[in-house]
Specification:
This protein has helices spanning about 1-5, 15-60, 60-65, 80-90, 115-125, 135-140, 140-145, 145-155, 160, 185-195, 210-220, 235-264; strands spanning about 170, 175. The protein is mainly α. Strand 1 and strand 2 form a beta hairpin.
Length: about 260
């Protein structure tokens, strides 16, 4: 403090303070202007993406979902479904589909990543909804717990998707698809949005951390070796019973034929 008091009345003190103040103000203005320009550019890029998505939607989706995504007799409204639902349905090839009366199947996607992102941005702009995620954002390898994920899967998912995640039959000709080989982000988005006959698992029901644990268990199950021998699709006792019945019955028929032939 004494040093400052000593030189505060120096004839150069005023100009130096003025210069420091001007430099500080100029630097602050530059930073603020750069941030403002970045925000404008980001907003402009988003508007461009939404416009592109609207064009793709009008060309490939509006015939079923309506010109304004309000829905029609054969397809539901997309207002409020969010980007997560669009990313899941389009990126897995379930949409667009030719026959809306059938259950959508996973297949090769019609749109690439950029077109899917544009469609998702357009639908998300119509009303708030669950946001899409990326595999990098989830970081399930670091955050998930395999043991907890297995327990959560058995309690919430196995009754439809099978204990081994291989899928299973539902009522009225529907089915729960296998979860093997599905991208982590699509598993997460499916839990958020509840596609087809699947219920919505909100964050209040299964927390984001628990969702990551389920994903980690699924990915572990994909690479689990068949320690008991032939896996037979890992769909449970159905294939095992069928194999045992076929072999056993075939063996009995063979013995009966052999005995009949020998008796002659």
């Amino acid at each position: 403090m004494g040093f400052i008091s000593k030189y505060r009345r120096h004839r150069f003190a005023g100009p130096l303070l003025l210069l420091a103040g001007l430099l500080f103000v100029g630097f602050g203005y530059t930073v603020a202007q750069a941030a403002s320009q970045e925000a404008v550019l980001s907003s402009s890029d988003k508007a461009t993406l939404i416009a592109e998505g609207k064009e793709i939607f009008a060309r490939g989706c509006s015939s079923c979902h309506g010109l304004n995504a309000e829905g029609a007799g054969i397809a539901p409204s997309l207002i409020g479904v969010g980007a997560a639902s669009v990313d899941f349905q389009v990126a897995t090839g379930r949409m667009p589909m030719a026959d809306m009366s059938q259950q959508a199947m996973r297949k090769e996607p019609l749109y690439n990543e950029e077109e899917t992102a544009a469609l998702a941005a357009y639908v998300a702009s119509l009303a708030p909804g669950p946001a899409a995620v990326t595999n990098e954002e989830l970081a399930w390898e670091r955050n998930g717990d395999t043991a907890e994920g297995g327990e959560l899967f058995r309690n919430n998912c196995a009754m439809c998707h099978n204990l081994a995640g291989q899928g299973g039959a539902l009522t009225q000709g529907k089915y729960a698809p296998t979860v093997m080989g599905v991208e982590p982000k699509h598993i997460y988005e499916a839990m958020l949005t509840g596609p087809q006959a699947m219920p919505v698992f909100a964050d209040t029901t299964i927390t984001p951390e628990e969702k990551l644990s389920i994903i980690k268990w699924i990915k572990h199950a994909e690479n689990e070796p068949a320690l008991g021998g032939v896996a037979l699709g890992r769909v449970g006792p159905v294939t095992e019973g069928l194999l045992a019945w076929t072999l056993g019955l075939g063996l009995l028929i063979g013995i009966a034929v052999w005995l009949t032939t020998k008796a002659r």
